[in-house]
Amino acid sequence: MAPPPAPPVRRSGQLAQSAARRSGGNPPASRPHTSPLSSGEQLANQDSPNPAPTDTDSKAKLVIQRGGKVGKEFPVSEPEALIGRWDADGGIFPDIDLDQDDPEAKVSRRHARIQMLNNQFVIEDLGSTNGTFINRGPRLLPGNKQPLKHGDEIIVGKTFLKFVMS
Fold it and tell me: What is the pLDDT of residues 61-102, one digit of tens each?
């Protein structure tokens, strides 16, 4: 009988971000990653058809088209990604941090969320002050999930982002 499959390995940066989101505080200091698997199990997992994700793996990304640093990319590699502005005092550490790209503070701290639901990316506004728009359509109603497709333009505050699927 084969041993049960090992749980997916998360990158230390993801662990720090996840811990920060749960605790509402700063991410813990980086620690060297040690695997609970024996060297033989590690070698066996290297040959598996579904390797653990790497820093360059992502299912989609957002690319700044206007506002901030044009061409800057934000990978969407988790099932859920928060779009907003970093706020250590408030314990807000968004996955897509537009703090440096939003000098006028038009993007809310917790502005919008992209999720993967039933093999489809969706976006929802989280009650932002200045709204979220897809392809220059009407303002999204808070909590109303809208499907995303490759090439969609997402506007948050004064920042224009292109949604690109891998």
Answer: 999 999 989 999 999 989 999 999 999 899 999 999 999 999
- Reported as a single tens digit per residue, the pLDDT across 143-153 is 999 999 999 99
Pairing of strands 73-76, 153-156: unpaired
pLDDT: which is higher, 36 or 130? 130
Task: Check residue 59 and give its pLDDT.
Answer: 87
The C-alpha atoms of residue 164 and residue 166 are separated, in whole angstroms, by: 7
CA distance 121 to 148: 5
Burial 48-67 (b: 16+ CB within 10 A, else e): eeeeebeeeebebbbebeeb
